[in-house]
Structures are given as structure tokens and as C-alpha cells.
Amino acid sequence: MRRILVTSALPYANGPLHFGHILEAVQTDIWARSLRMAGHECTYVCADDTHGTPMMLKAQAEGITPEELIAAVEAEHRATYRDFMVDHAQFHSTHSAENREMTERIFLALDKAGYIAKRTIRQAYDAQAQMFLPDRYVKGTCPRCGSKDQYGDSCESCGATYSPSELIDAVSVVSGTPPVERESEHLFFRLDAFETMLRAWTRSGALHQSVANKLDEWFDAGLRDWDISRDAPYFGFEIPGHPGKYFYVWLDAPVGYMASSLALARRKGLDFNAWWGAENPGVIKWGDRLQRDYNKACEAMLTELWSNYGELTEIWFDGGVLPVDKGGPDLFPILQKHQPDAVVFQSPAPGGIRWIGNENGVAKYPCWSTVKKLNDSGAGDPDG
């Protein structure tokens, strides 16, 4: 018997679940159930991803606190998963005592070992809103191709990457005023200190050859230290010993997987280390293309997981194509029109789209499937 802890991408708690969330959750749940039927111990945990500037600003716009916002969204997410018969052993939140505990524990251990560095940086600052701005909260004209209304970190037209200060006619998305630059001391994780270990692991045979080759490009360019802090105001966990500084959401979000399983272990009297202890590797993250930015190693693992199956790019629904990154159709009207069994049955269909149609308001074929961009053949034909 194998002991396996399985999880799927944490949905962001700023709105309802979309079809992409349900697709992944259903696939994960089916896989976990099948392992239990085969006699293995398989536990499925997940959580809401709750921190960051977008959450704070949305709560302000709605005239409520971030805590009220995430509580309401969590209740909605739980109900939606239940409607689609997804069976989580634990559905938790990154805004939890367990996640604070685990995040602080990891940070303090890294700091004690000398892997946290301080550095003064210059950032875009909205004087009217009195807050530092994330790169994507600054918009302007691309300095390379001249395309207007581009984000502060990259151009969606030409693909150029840059800093917010390089944008032409930059404005704050929050107030619409031109940002200024201000200095602030930030905390950085010394990723370069782990280069030898990461190089050895990527060449250990654990990865597909093409993935390892891609990672070599990053190693050759040099691993850069990772800014793990954000200035107040920010919705998240304040960093111990650093008043007014908060953990960047992408530090505590992946820790949320551990926190959810810790909450389950404490609630059920289970052994947390049986899953997460170094001598008991048994954690599997169900990969998807929308959650690949945790770190270099996680990027490689998720890419490897999808390497044999292609990449989810579109959803065909009732005769129309919806890109995955646009969220897909709303789920409430779907449940009004179709039984959830249809979604659960069709979601894991392999290979690519085959049929979608609508005839006099009634689906003439099951309208739940995915388009996979196969590695060597392109996207599927909806009429095929």
C-alpha cells in the first residue's frame, strides 16, 4: 500500500470558481478515488489562495474587509465543489493559523541559515493611494514596440520584459495618476545558493530531457534572488521582526498545501510527517498550466507532468471556444442546465475535443471536454 497526499491548484479567492478549476479538481478527485479503490491510502487536500494586493483592492471596492471577502468566497467555493461532487479530505485557506505557522517556520529557518538577504530597491509608488504598486498595477506604452495600455512588467504585443520605470506615460491602475519612484528595503531569498543542488536534481533523470535543457538556460543566465517581501498596505502575513513588511503572496501560497494537510492531520489525529517528512516522500501536485510560477523546480515538475499529454488551451462549450485563461463558462447556469454527472464523466476525457453542439437549446452530444494542444499535432478539430 502506498501513502499518497494529492492536491490541485489553489483557486484565488477573489471570485467564483470557473470551469478550469472544476476540470482540474474533477480529474484529481477521480485519480484519488481510483487509488483508494486499488487499496492505497490517498488523501486529497486543497485550499483557497487568499492574499495579495488584488484581494485588498477588491475588498476596498466592495466596502468590506479582506477577511469578509475571503470568507464569503470560501463558502461559495465549497458549495461549488460540493455541487460537482469533488471530495476533498480538507479544503482550507492560506489565511489560516496553520499557514502562518508553516510560513514563519520556513522563513525563520532560512534566515537563520543565512539564506535571506536585505536590499534597498526602487519601486513605483502611488502618492495619491499612498501605496507601492506591483508591476502589473502600472500601465503605459511599451518602450520597445510602442503598444499602448501595457503592464509594467511585460508587453503582451511584442513580448518585451522591462521594469515599470521604463514604461512611457505610465499611470497607476489604482488612481490613474503617474507613479513616482521611492526606495524601500526588501527581503530576498538567495536562490543562487541552491544552484548546485538544483542543477544536480534537474540532471538526475527526474525530468524530461527537453525540460532539463530549458532549465539549463536559466542556470546559464544566473539564478536571481527572489523578492519575498511587500510593503504595507498589503493583505497577508506580517514578517516576524520586520514591522510593516509582509510575505509576498507567492511565498505563502504554495505553503498553503502543507498548511491544509497540517490542519487535516490535527483535526483527525494523523501524522503530518508521514506525508511531508524527508523520509516519506508521497506528495503529488496535479499539474496545470495556470500554476507554474512557484519556483524553478516546481516549474520543471509541472512541465514534466504535462509533457506526455500536451497543454490545456481551450474549452469547447455549447458550440463556442473559450480560452482557459479567460475562465470558461459560468458554473451556476451550467448546473441549472446539466446534471453534474455529465461534467464529472466528460472532464477527464483524453486526447482532445471531439464533439460539441447545441440543437434547439438541448445538447445533442455531451458538451464537456477539453482541447489539448498535442505536442506534435496541434489542437483538435471540433468536428472531428
- The total beta strand count reads 16
| Rg measurement, Å | 22 Å
- Global outline: globular
Class computed from helices, strands and strand pairing: alpha+beta
Strand order of the largest sheet: 3-2-1-13
Strand content: 15-25%
Q: Can you count the helices?
A: 11
Please report the distance between the alpha carbons of the first and last residues: 41 Å
Let me know the average pLDDT: 78
Q: How much helix is in the residues? A: 25-40%
The stretches of 5 or more residues where confidence is low (pLDDT under 50) are 287-328, 346-384
Order of helices and strands: EHEHHEHEEEEEEHHEEEHHEHEEHHE
Please outline the major beta sheet. 4 strands, parallel
Please give the structural blueprint:
Blueprint: E1 3-7, H1 19-37, E2 41-48, H2 53-62, H3 66-83, E3 90-93, H4 97-112, E4 116-126, E5 131-132, E6 138-141, E7 150-151, E8 168-172, E9 180-189, H5 195-202, H6 209-221, E10 226-227, E11 229-231, E12 245-247, H7 249-268, H8 273-276, E13 283-285, H9 296-306, E14 311-317, E15 320-323, H10 331-337, H11 340-346, E16 371-373
Parallel strand pairs: 1-2, 1-13, 2-3
Antiparallel strand pairs: 4-5, 4-9, 6-7, 6-8, 9-10, 11-12, 14-15, 14-16
Summary tags:
384 residues, disordered C terminus, four-stranded parallel beta sheet, four-stranded antiparallel beta sheet, 35% helix
Report on the architecture of this protein.
The protein has 11 helices and 16 strands. With 384 residues, it is of the alpha+beta class. It is globular and about 60 Å long.
